[in-house]
Amino acid sequence: MSLLTTSMATRLRRKPPAATKIREPFRDRVFLVVVTIMLAVVLALVLLPLVYIVASSFSSASAVSAGRVSFWPVEFSLHAYRVALTNPQVLQGYYNSLIYAVAGTLISVTLTVAIAYPLSRKTFFGRNVLMTLLIFTMLFSGGLIPTYMVVQDLGMLNTRWALLIPNAIGVFQVIIARTFFANSIPDELYEAAMLDGASELRVLRSVVLPLSKPLLAVLALMYAIYQWNTYFDALVYLKDPDLYPLQIVLRNMLILNQTRPGATDMAQQMEQLQLANVLKYALIVVSSLPVLIIYPFIARHFTKGVMVGAVKG
Amino acid sequence: MAVTTPHPVSLPSGTESPARPGPRRGAPARRRHRRWSQAQRAWRLHWQLYLLVIVPMAYFVIFKYIPMSFAVIAFKDYNVVQGPWGSDWVGLRNFQLLFSNPVFGSLLKNTFILAFYLVLASFPIPIMLALALNEIRKGWFKRTVQMVTYAPYFISTVVVVSMTILVLSPRAGIINQGLGLVGIGPVNFLGEPGWFRHIYVWSDVWQTAGYSAVIYMAALAGIDPALHESAKIDGASRLQRIRHVDLPGIMPTAVIILILGVGNMMAIGFEKAYLLQNDLNLAQSEIIATYVYKTGLINADFSMATAVGLFNSVVNLCLLLAVNFAAKRITGNGLWR
Question: Is A162 in the same domain as A88?
Answer without folding.
Answer: yes
